[in-house]
Protein backbone atom coordinates (compact mmCIF):
# COMPACT_ATOMS: atom_id res chain seq x y z
CA UNK A 1 0.00 0.00 0.00
CA UNK A 2 1.36 3.43 -0.98
CA UNK A 3 0.94 5.58 2.08
CA UNK A 4 -0.49 9.06 1.24
CA UNK A 5 1.37 12.06 2.58
CA UNK A 6 -0.62 13.94 5.25
CA UNK A 7 -1.06 17.56 4.22
CA UNK A 8 -0.75 20.47 6.62
CA UNK A 9 -3.55 23.01 6.97
CA UNK A 10 -0.96 25.77 7.38
CA UNK A 11 -0.29 28.11 4.45
CA UNK A 12 2.23 26.75 1.97
CA UNK A 13 5.40 28.77 2.52
CA UNK A 14 7.05 27.87 -0.79
CA UNK A 15 4.33 27.24 -3.35
CA UNK A 16 5.47 25.26 -6.39
CA UNK A 17 3.79 23.41 -9.26
CA UNK A 18 4.28 20.18 -7.31
CA UNK A 19 2.53 21.27 -4.11
CA UNK A 20 -0.03 23.60 -5.68
CA UNK A 21 -3.01 21.30 -5.10
CA UNK A 22 -5.60 24.04 -5.64
CA UNK A 23 -4.44 25.85 -8.78
CA UNK A 24 -3.30 28.93 -6.86
CA UNK A 25 -0.22 29.66 -8.96
CA UNK A 26 -2.26 30.56 -12.04
CA UNK A 27 -4.16 33.20 -10.08
CA UNK A 28 -0.92 34.36 -8.43
CA UNK A 29 0.87 34.80 -11.76
CA UNK A 30 -2.03 36.85 -13.11
CA UNK A 31 -1.95 39.19 -10.10
CA UNK A 32 1.85 39.37 -10.20
CA UNK A 33 1.83 40.44 -13.85
CA UNK A 34 -0.83 43.05 -13.10
CA UNK A 35 1.10 44.57 -10.17
CA UNK A 36 4.41 44.65 -12.02
CA UNK A 37 2.83 46.20 -15.09
CA UNK A 38 0.90 49.00 -13.38
CA UNK A 39 3.39 50.62 -11.01
CA UNK A 40 2.94 53.97 -12.69
CA UNK A 41 -0.60 54.13 -11.29
CA UNK A 42 0.28 53.39 -7.66
CA UNK A 43 0.17 57.08 -6.75
CA UNK A 44 -3.61 56.80 -7.26
CA UNK A 45 -4.42 53.11 -6.74
CA UNK A 46 -3.29 51.96 -3.30
CA UNK A 47 -5.72 49.37 -1.91
CA UNK A 48 -6.03 45.82 -3.26
CA UNK A 49 -7.82 42.77 -1.90
CA UNK A 50 -8.10 39.06 -2.56
CA UNK A 51 -11.50 37.71 -1.53
CA UNK A 52 -11.89 34.14 -0.38
CA UNK A 53 -13.55 32.24 2.45
CA UNK A 54 -11.64 30.94 5.44
CA UNK A 55 -9.33 28.12 4.35
CA UNK A 56 -9.51 28.89 0.63
CA UNK A 57 -5.75 29.45 0.25
CA UNK A 58 -5.49 33.26 0.54
CA UNK A 59 -2.41 33.06 2.76
CA UNK A 60 -0.62 30.66 0.42
CA UNK A 61 -1.37 32.94 -2.53
CA UNK A 62 -0.09 36.06 -0.77
CA UNK A 63 3.06 34.29 0.41
CA UNK A 64 3.63 33.19 -3.20
CA UNK A 65 3.19 36.79 -4.38
CA UNK A 66 5.61 38.06 -1.75
CA UNK A 67 8.25 35.59 -2.88
CA UNK A 68 7.70 36.38 -6.55
CA UNK A 69 7.72 40.16 -6.06
CA UNK A 70 10.77 40.34 -3.77
CA UNK A 71 13.39 42.40 -5.56
CA UNK A 72 10.79 44.17 -7.68
CA UNK A 73 9.15 45.62 -4.55
CA UNK A 74 10.09 46.12 -0.92
CA UNK A 75 7.72 43.49 0.48
CA UNK A 76 6.14 43.32 3.94
CA UNK A 77 3.91 40.58 5.34
CA UNK A 78 1.79 41.69 8.29
CA UNK A 79 -0.05 38.81 9.97
CA UNK A 80 -2.77 40.77 11.72
CA UNK A 81 -3.86 37.97 14.02
CA UNK A 82 -0.46 37.97 15.75
CA UNK A 83 -1.12 41.55 16.85
CA UNK A 84 -4.83 41.12 17.57
CA UNK A 85 -4.34 41.61 21.30
CA UNK A 86 -2.80 45.04 20.73
CA UNK A 87 -5.11 47.92 21.52
CA UNK A 88 -4.55 49.47 18.12
CA UNK A 89 -3.88 47.27 15.09
CA UNK A 90 -3.20 50.27 12.86
CA UNK A 91 -0.45 51.46 15.19
CA UNK A 92 1.00 47.94 15.26
CA UNK A 93 1.07 47.95 11.46
CA UNK A 94 2.88 51.30 11.38
CA UNK A 95 5.49 50.10 13.88
CA UNK A 96 5.89 46.83 11.96
CA UNK A 97 6.54 48.56 8.62
CA UNK A 98 9.04 51.02 10.03
CA UNK A 99 10.85 48.51 12.24
CA UNK A 100 11.49 46.20 9.27
CA UNK A 101 13.80 48.82 7.74
CA UNK A 102 16.93 48.74 9.87
CA UNK A 103 18.86 51.02 7.50
CA UNK A 104 16.72 54.11 8.21
CA UNK A 105 17.77 56.46 10.97
CA UNK A 106 16.25 56.38 14.42
CA UNK A 107 15.04 59.94 13.83
CA UNK A 108 12.96 58.81 10.87
CA UNK A 109 11.54 55.93 12.86
CA UNK A 110 10.73 58.11 15.88
CA UNK A 111 9.04 60.83 13.84
CA UNK A 112 6.89 58.49 11.77
CA UNK A 113 5.76 56.60 14.85
CA UNK A 114 5.31 59.74 16.95
CA UNK A 115 3.11 61.63 14.52
CA UNK A 116 1.43 58.45 13.36
CA UNK A 117 0.61 57.64 16.94
CA UNK A 118 -0.97 61.04 17.45
CA UNK A 119 -3.07 60.69 14.32
CA UNK A 120 -4.16 57.13 14.95
CA UNK A 121 -4.81 57.40 18.66
CA UNK A 122 -6.03 60.97 18.89
CA UNK A 123 -4.67 63.99 20.72
CA UNK A 124 -4.88 64.14 24.47
CA UNK A 125 -6.67 67.49 24.44
CA UNK A 126 -8.83 66.98 21.38
CA UNK A 127 -12.49 66.18 21.40
CA UNK A 128 -13.76 62.89 20.01
CA UNK A 129 -14.00 63.35 16.26
CA UNK A 130 -15.27 61.46 13.21
CA UNK A 131 -13.51 61.48 9.85
CA UNK A 132 -15.68 60.24 6.95
CA UNK A 133 -14.23 57.29 5.08
CA UNK A 134 -16.03 58.31 1.91
CA UNK A 135 -18.84 60.63 0.84
CA UNK A 136 -22.09 59.79 2.64
CA UNK A 137 -20.28 56.85 4.21
CA UNK A 138 -19.34 55.78 7.74
CA UNK A 139 -16.81 57.68 9.83
CA UNK A 140 -13.58 56.59 11.49
CA UNK A 141 -13.58 57.54 15.17
CA UNK A 142 -10.52 59.03 16.85
CA UNK A 143 -10.94 58.73 20.58
CA UNK A 144 -8.59 60.50 22.99
CA UNK A 145 -9.32 57.87 25.64
CA UNK A 146 -7.14 55.50 23.62
CA UNK A 147 -4.30 58.02 23.53
CA UNK A 148 -0.94 56.84 24.92
CA UNK A 149 1.78 58.92 26.48
CA UNK A 150 3.36 61.23 23.90
CA UNK A 151 7.09 61.51 23.38
CA UNK A 152 7.15 65.29 23.88
CA UNK A 153 4.69 66.62 26.42
CA UNK A 154 5.52 70.27 25.73
CA UNK A 155 4.34 70.20 22.11
CA UNK A 156 0.91 71.69 21.59
CA UNK A 157 -0.19 70.18 18.26
CA UNK A 158 -3.58 70.37 16.69
CA UNK A 159 -4.88 67.24 15.03
CA UNK A 160 -4.42 68.87 11.62
CA UNK A 161 -0.79 69.75 12.40
CA UNK A 162 -0.08 66.20 13.54
CA UNK A 163 -1.72 64.89 10.37
CA UNK A 164 0.36 67.17 8.13
CA UNK A 165 3.54 66.10 9.95
CA UNK A 166 2.63 62.45 9.55
CA UNK A 167 2.07 62.92 5.80
CA UNK A 168 5.46 64.57 5.47
CA UNK A 169 7.28 61.95 7.53
CA UNK A 170 5.59 59.03 5.77
CA UNK A 171 6.63 60.34 2.35
CA UNK A 172 10.19 60.91 3.63
CA UNK A 173 10.15 57.35 4.97
CA UNK A 174 9.03 56.06 1.56
CA UNK A 175 11.79 57.98 -0.21
CA UNK A 176 14.40 56.68 2.22
CA UNK A 177 13.63 52.98 1.69
CA UNK A 178 13.11 53.23 -2.09
CA UNK A 179 16.25 55.27 -2.81
CA UNK A 180 19.52 54.16 -4.35
CA UNK A 181 19.55 50.58 -5.60
CA UNK A 182 16.48 49.58 -3.57
CA UNK A 183 13.18 48.63 -5.23
CA UNK A 184 11.21 51.76 -6.07
CA UNK A 185 7.87 50.59 -4.65
CA UNK A 186 6.57 48.99 -1.45
CA UNK A 187 3.84 46.38 -1.11
CA UNK A 188 2.36 45.48 2.28
CA UNK A 189 0.49 42.16 2.46
CA UNK A 190 -2.03 41.99 5.30
CA UNK A 191 -3.14 38.48 6.25
CA UNK A 192 -5.32 36.75 8.86
CA UNK A 193 -7.90 39.54 9.05
CA UNK A 194 -10.65 36.90 9.17
CA UNK A 195 -9.20 35.66 12.47
CA UNK A 196 -9.47 39.07 14.16
CA UNK A 197 -12.36 40.62 16.04
CA UNK A 198 -14.78 42.48 13.72
CA UNK A 199 -14.10 45.86 15.36
CA UNK A 200 -10.35 45.44 14.87
CA UNK A 201 -10.83 44.51 11.20
CA UNK A 202 -12.86 47.64 10.41
CA UNK A 203 -10.58 49.94 12.38
CA UNK A 204 -7.49 48.66 10.60
CA UNK A 205 -9.02 48.88 7.11
CA UNK A 206 -10.37 52.37 7.85
CA UNK A 207 -7.05 53.62 9.19
CA UNK A 208 -5.13 52.28 6.20
CA UNK A 209 -7.55 53.92 3.78
CA UNK A 210 -7.43 57.26 5.59
CA UNK A 211 -3.84 57.59 6.76
CA UNK A 212 -1.52 55.07 5.11
CA UNK A 213 -2.22 56.03 1.53
CA UNK A 214 -0.58 59.46 1.59
CA UNK A 215 2.55 58.14 -0.01
CA UNK A 216 3.12 57.62 -3.71
CA UNK A 217 5.02 54.36 -3.59
CA UNK A 218 3.26 52.07 -1.11
CA UNK A 219 0.32 49.77 -1.84
CA UNK A 220 -1.61 47.44 0.46
CA UNK A 221 -2.81 43.96 -0.47
CA UNK A 222 -5.31 42.42 1.97
CA UNK A 223 -6.62 38.88 2.26
CA UNK A 224 -10.35 39.24 3.01
CA UNK A 225 -13.13 36.85 3.94
CA UNK A 226 -16.17 38.75 2.70
CA UNK A 227 -18.44 37.07 5.24
CA UNK A 228 -16.29 38.28 8.13
CA UNK A 229 -16.29 41.88 6.88
CA UNK A 230 -20.02 41.76 6.09
CA UNK A 231 -20.73 40.65 9.66
CA UNK A 232 -18.44 43.34 11.06
CA UNK A 233 -20.11 46.07 8.98
CA UNK A 234 -23.56 44.81 9.95
CA UNK A 235 -22.60 44.76 13.64
CA UNK A 236 -21.11 48.26 13.65
CA UNK A 237 -23.27 50.15 11.17
CA UNK A 238 -26.47 48.13 10.96
CA UNK A 239 -28.45 48.93 7.82
CA UNK A 240 -26.87 52.37 7.43
CA UNK A 241 -23.99 50.98 5.36
CA UNK A 242 -24.11 48.07 2.94
CA UNK A 243 -21.16 45.71 3.29
CA UNK A 244 -20.53 45.54 -0.46
CA UNK A 245 -20.53 49.32 -0.73
CA UNK A 246 -18.11 49.54 2.19
CA UNK A 247 -15.63 47.15 0.55
CA UNK A 248 -15.99 48.77 -2.86
CA UNK A 249 -15.05 52.14 -1.35
CA UNK A 250 -12.16 50.75 0.70
CA UNK A 251 -10.51 48.72 -2.06
CA UNK A 252 -9.56 50.13 -5.44
CA UNK A 253 -9.17 46.72 -7.09
CA UNK A 254 -10.26 43.29 -5.86
CA UNK A 255 -9.53 39.73 -6.95
CA UNK A 256 -11.26 36.47 -6.04
CA UNK A 257 -9.72 33.16 -5.03
CA UNK A 258 -10.25 30.29 -7.50
CA UNK A 259 -13.56 28.47 -7.03
CA UNK A 260 -11.75 25.12 -6.71
CA UNK A 261 -13.80 23.57 -9.46
CA UNK A 262 -11.05 21.00 -9.90
CA UNK A 263 -9.80 19.27 -6.75
CA UNK A 264 -8.32 16.24 -8.51
CA UNK A 265 -4.70 17.07 -7.65
CA UNK A 266 -5.52 17.30 -3.94
CA UNK A 267 -7.69 14.16 -4.03
CA UNK A 268 -4.98 12.24 -5.90
CA UNK A 269 -2.61 12.69 -2.98
CA UNK A 270 -4.90 10.31 -1.05
CA UNK A 271 -6.56 8.11 -3.70
CA UNK A 272 -5.02 6.37 -6.70
CA UNK A 273 -6.48 5.97 -10.19
CA UNK A 274 -7.65 2.34 -10.02
CA UNK A 275 -10.88 1.60 -11.85
CA UNK A 276 -14.08 1.40 -9.78
CA UNK A 277 -16.63 -0.95 -11.39
CA UNK A 278 -19.62 0.62 -9.63
CA UNK A 279 -18.89 4.07 -11.10
CA UNK A 280 -17.12 3.04 -14.29
CA UNK A 281 -14.42 5.62 -13.52
CA UNK A 282 -11.10 5.89 -11.72
CA UNK A 283 -11.13 6.04 -7.92
CA UNK A 284 -9.55 9.50 -7.62
CA UNK A 285 -11.91 10.93 -10.24
CA UNK A 286 -14.95 9.30 -8.59
CA UNK A 287 -13.98 10.70 -5.16
CA UNK A 288 -13.39 14.15 -6.65
CA UNK A 289 -16.80 14.07 -8.33
CA UNK A 290 -18.42 12.98 -5.05
CA UNK A 291 -16.76 15.82 -3.10
CA UNK A 292 -17.85 18.32 -5.75
CA UNK A 293 -21.38 16.92 -5.79
CA UNK A 294 -21.94 17.39 -2.06
CA UNK A 295 -20.38 20.87 -2.19
CA UNK A 296 -17.59 20.24 0.32
CA UNK A 297 -14.94 22.32 -1.49
CA UNK A 298 -13.22 24.32 1.25
CA UNK A 299 -9.57 23.19 0.90
CA UNK A 300 -8.65 23.53 4.57
CA UNK A 301 -11.65 21.53 5.75
CA UNK A 302 -11.25 18.96 2.99
CA UNK A 303 -7.60 18.37 3.88
CA UNK A 304 -8.59 17.79 7.51
CA UNK A 305 -11.15 15.15 6.50
CA UNK A 306 -8.78 13.48 4.02
CA UNK A 307 -6.01 13.38 6.63
CA UNK A 308 -8.37 11.58 9.05
CA UNK A 309 -9.40 9.17 6.31
CA UNK A 310 -5.70 8.49 5.68
CA UNK A 311 -5.21 7.69 9.38
CA UNK A 312 -8.10 5.19 9.20
CA UNK A 313 -6.59 3.64 6.06
CA UNK A 314 -3.28 3.16 7.85
CA UNK A 315 -5.05 1.57 10.84
CA UNK A 316 -7.01 -0.73 8.56
CA UNK A 317 -3.90 -1.82 6.68
CA UNK A 318 -1.88 -2.39 9.85
CA UNK A 319 -4.67 -4.26 11.67
CA UNK A 320 -5.47 -6.75 8.89
CA UNK A 321 -6.12 -10.13 10.50
CA UNK A 322 -5.84 -8.65 14.01
CA UNK A 323 -8.23 -7.51 16.71
CA UNK A 324 -9.70 -4.12 15.91
CA UNK A 325 -9.76 -4.66 12.15
CA UNK A 326 -13.56 -4.65 12.15
CA UNK A 327 -13.69 -1.26 13.89
CA UNK A 328 -13.26 0.26 10.45
CA UNK A 329 -15.65 -0.28 7.51
CA UNK A 330 -14.52 -1.90 4.29
CA UNK A 331 -12.93 1.26 2.90
CA UNK A 332 -10.55 1.00 -0.04
CA UNK A 333 -7.10 0.10 1.27
CA UNK A 334 -4.59 -1.57 -1.00
CA UNK A 335 -6.48 -4.07 -3.14
CA UNK A 336 -9.38 -4.42 -0.69
CA UNK A 337 -12.50 -2.41 0.00
CA UNK A 338 -15.51 -1.02 -1.80
CA UNK A 339 -16.49 2.42 -3.04
CA UNK A 340 -19.78 2.71 -1.14
CA UNK A 341 -18.21 2.29 2.29
CA UNK A 342 -15.39 4.63 1.26
CA UNK A 343 -17.65 7.57 0.38
CA UNK A 344 -19.92 6.87 3.35
CA UNK A 345 -16.89 7.03 5.65
CA UNK A 346 -15.83 10.35 4.10
CA UNK A 347 -19.35 11.68 4.63
CA UNK A 348 -19.41 10.56 8.28
CA UNK A 349 -16.02 12.20 8.86
CA UNK A 350 -17.37 15.45 7.41
CA UNK A 351 -20.39 15.30 9.71
CA UNK A 352 -18.32 14.49 12.80
CA UNK A 353 -15.95 17.40 12.13
CA UNK A 354 -18.17 20.12 10.73
CA UNK A 355 -21.87 19.15 11.11
CA UNK A 356 -21.99 18.00 14.72
CA UNK A 357 -25.78 18.23 15.01
CA UNK A 358 -26.28 15.93 12.01
CA UNK A 359 -23.66 13.52 13.33
CA UNK A 360 -25.26 13.30 16.77
CA UNK A 361 -28.69 12.32 15.43
CA UNK A 362 -27.42 10.21 12.53
CA UNK A 363 -28.19 6.96 14.35
CA UNK A 364 -30.98 8.13 16.60
CA UNK A 365 -33.34 5.23 15.84
CA UNK A 366 -36.04 6.47 18.21
CA UNK A 367 -36.17 9.81 16.45
CA UNK A 368 -36.20 8.14 13.04
CA UNK A 369 -39.12 5.95 14.00
CA UNK A 370 -41.14 8.89 15.28
CA UNK A 371 -40.45 11.04 12.26
CA UNK A 372 -41.26 8.22 9.87
CA UNK A 373 -44.54 7.68 11.69
CA UNK A 374 -45.40 11.38 11.44
CA UNK A 375 -44.46 11.40 7.78
CA UNK A 376 -46.75 8.48 6.97
CA UNK A 377 -49.62 10.01 8.97
CA UNK A 378 -49.12 13.30 7.17
CA UNK A 379 -49.25 11.57 3.80
CA UNK A 380 -52.46 9.68 4.61
CA UNK A 381 -54.01 12.46 6.71
CA UNK A 382 -55.31 10.00 9.32
CA UNK A 383 -53.93 7.35 11.69
CA UNK A 384 -56.63 4.77 12.40
CA UNK A 385 -56.68 3.32 8.91
CA UNK A 386 -55.36 -0.25 9.07
CA UNK A 387 -53.18 0.16 5.98
CA UNK A 388 -51.58 3.25 7.45
CA UNK A 389 -50.79 1.45 10.71
CA UNK A 390 -49.38 -1.49 8.76
CA UNK A 391 -47.18 0.83 6.73
CA UNK A 392 -45.90 2.49 9.90
CA UNK A 393 -45.09 -0.92 11.40
CA UNK A 394 -43.23 -2.05 8.27
CA UNK A 395 -41.18 1.16 8.12
CA UNK A 396 -40.32 1.12 11.82
CA UNK A 397 -39.43 -2.57 11.71
CA UNK A 398 -37.10 -1.90 8.82
CA UNK A 399 -35.31 0.69 10.93
CA UNK A 400 -35.16 -1.56 14.02
CA UNK A 401 -33.75 -4.56 12.18
CA UNK A 402 -31.13 -2.57 10.29
CA UNK A 403 -28.19 -4.93 10.18
CA UNK A 404 -24.84 -4.76 8.49
CA UNK A 405 -24.40 -3.23 5.05
CA UNK A 406 -24.10 -6.72 3.61
CA UNK A 407 -27.37 -7.93 5.16
CA UNK A 408 -29.33 -4.73 4.54
CA UNK A 409 -28.38 -4.49 0.90
CA UNK A 410 -28.90 -8.20 0.40
CA UNK A 411 -32.46 -7.86 1.73
CA UNK A 412 -33.16 -4.95 -0.61
CA UNK A 413 -31.66 -6.76 -3.58
CA UNK A 414 -33.50 -10.01 -2.78
CA UNK A 415 -36.84 -8.23 -2.46
CA UNK A 416 -36.19 -6.36 -5.66
CA UNK A 417 -35.36 -9.52 -7.64
CA UNK A 418 -38.21 -11.53 -6.12
CA UNK A 419 -40.87 -8.95 -6.88
CA UNK A 420 -39.48 -7.71 -10.17
CA UNK A 421 -41.80 -8.81 -12.94
CA UNK A 422 -44.19 -10.67 -10.60
CA UNK A 423 -47.89 -9.79 -10.38
CA UNK A 424 -48.38 -7.19 -7.68
CA UNK A 425 -50.67 -4.37 -6.70
CA UNK A 426 -47.59 -2.18 -7.02
CA UNK A 427 -46.47 -1.00 -10.43
CA UNK A 428 -42.72 -1.36 -11.21
CA UNK A 429 -42.41 2.41 -10.71
CA UNK A 430 -44.11 2.24 -7.30
CA UNK A 431 -41.91 -0.60 -6.17
CA UNK A 432 -38.85 1.28 -7.40
CA UNK A 433 -39.88 4.20 -5.16
CA UNK A 434 -40.22 1.88 -2.16
CA UNK A 435 -36.74 0.47 -2.80
CA UNK A 436 -35.36 3.99 -2.92
CA UNK A 437 -36.94 4.77 0.45
CA UNK A 438 -35.54 1.64 2.08
CA UNK A 439 -32.11 2.28 0.65
CA UNK A 440 -31.83 5.92 1.61
CA UNK A 441 -33.66 6.09 4.92
CA UNK A 442 -30.63 4.88 6.87
CA UNK A 443 -28.33 7.61 5.54
CA UNK A 444 -30.23 10.81 6.18
CA UNK A 445 -30.68 13.41 8.86
CA UNK A 446 -34.25 12.50 9.88
CA UNK A 447 -34.98 16.00 11.11
CA UNK A 448 -34.52 17.49 7.68
CA UNK A 449 -35.66 14.88 5.18
CA UNK A 450 -39.13 13.42 4.98
CA UNK A 451 -39.59 9.67 4.58
CA UNK A 452 -41.63 10.27 1.43
CA UNK A 453 -39.01 12.52 -0.13
CA UNK A 454 -37.63 9.34 -1.67
CA UNK A 455 -40.84 8.43 -3.46
CA UNK A 456 -39.96 10.51 -6.47
CA UNK A 457 -39.24 8.72 -9.70
CA UNK A 458 -36.20 10.88 -10.49
CA UNK A 459 -33.65 13.02 -8.71
CA UNK A 460 -34.79 15.89 -10.92
CA UNK A 461 -38.23 15.74 -9.26
CA UNK A 462 -36.55 15.68 -5.87
CA UNK A 463 -34.47 18.78 -6.66
CA UNK A 464 -37.44 20.71 -8.00
CA UNK A 465 -39.49 19.91 -4.90
CA UNK A 466 -36.67 20.87 -2.51
CA UNK A 467 -35.16 23.85 -4.30
CA UNK A 468 -34.79 25.76 -1.01
CA UNK A 469 -32.98 23.00 0.89
CA UNK A 470 -31.13 21.13 -1.82
CA UNK A 471 -27.80 22.87 -1.17
CA UNK A 472 -27.57 21.34 2.33
CA UNK A 473 -25.01 18.59 2.55
CA UNK A 474 -27.50 15.98 3.85
CA UNK A 475 -29.78 16.51 0.86
CA UNK A 476 -26.86 16.45 -1.55
CA UNK A 477 -25.54 13.21 -0.08
CA UNK A 478 -28.94 11.54 -0.44
CA UNK A 479 -29.18 12.78 -4.03
CA UNK A 480 -25.82 11.16 -4.73
CA UNK A 481 -27.07 7.88 -3.28
CA UNK A 482 -30.30 8.06 -5.26
CA UNK A 483 -28.29 8.35 -8.44
CA UNK A 484 -26.02 5.43 -7.57
CA UNK A 485 -27.81 2.96 -5.29
CA UNK A 486 -28.16 0.19 -7.90
CA UNK A 487 -24.39 0.13 -8.39
CA UNK A 488 -23.75 -0.03 -4.65
CA UNK A 489 -26.03 -3.06 -4.24
CA UNK A 490 -23.62 -5.02 -6.44
CA UNK A 491 -20.53 -4.25 -4.38
CA UNK A 492 -18.87 -6.62 -1.91
CA UNK A 493 -20.14 -4.96 1.25
CA UNK A 494 -19.03 -5.72 4.79
CA UNK A 495 -20.83 -6.49 8.05
CA UNK A 496 -20.20 -2.95 9.31
CA UNK A 497 -23.23 -1.13 10.70
CA UNK A 498 -24.14 2.54 10.63
CA UNK A 499 -24.19 2.50 14.42
CA UNK A 500 -20.53 1.41 14.39
CA UNK A 501 -19.30 4.70 12.98
CA UNK A 502 -19.53 6.56 16.28
CA UNK A 503 -17.60 3.77 18.01
CA UNK A 504 -14.91 3.96 15.31
CA UNK A 505 -14.51 7.72 15.69
CA UNK A 506 -14.55 7.60 19.52
CA UNK A 507 -11.93 4.83 19.68
CA UNK A 508 -9.65 5.67 16.77
CA UNK A 509 -9.96 9.41 16.10
Kindly describe this structure.
- The chain has 509 residues and is an alpha/beta fold.
- Among the domains are: 47-256, Rossmann fold; 364-469, no CATH class.
- It has helices at 24-37, 58-69, 89-99, 106-121, 159-177, 198-211, 226-237, 243-250, 264-267, 283-293, 299-318, 339-354, 356-361, 365-380, 386-400, 405-419, 428-440, 459-465, 473-488, 500-508; strands spanning 47-51, 74-79, 129-132, 139-142, 186-191, 218-224, 253-256, 275-276, 281-282.
**What general form does the structure show?**
elongated
Major sheet, described briefly? 5 strands, parallel
Q: Rounded to an integer, what's the Rg over CA atoms? A: 30 Å
Structural class: alpha/beta
Helix content: 40-55%
> What is the spatial order of strands in the main beta sheet?
2-5-6-1-7
Query: At the third CATH level, what is the topology name of the domain at 47-256?
Result: Rossmann fold
Q: Which parts are unreliable, with pLDDT below 50 for 5 consecutive residues or more? A: 122-129, 142-154
CATH architecture annotation name of the domain at 47-256: 3-Layer(aba) Sandwich
User: What proportion of the residues form beta strands (DSSP E)?
Assistant: 5-15%
Strand element count:
9
Q: What is the ordering of alpha helices and beta strands?
A: HEHEHHEEHEHEHHEHEEHHHHHHHHHHH
Helices, by number, come to 20
Average pLDDT number: 78
Briefly, what CATH class of the domain at 47-256? Alpha Beta
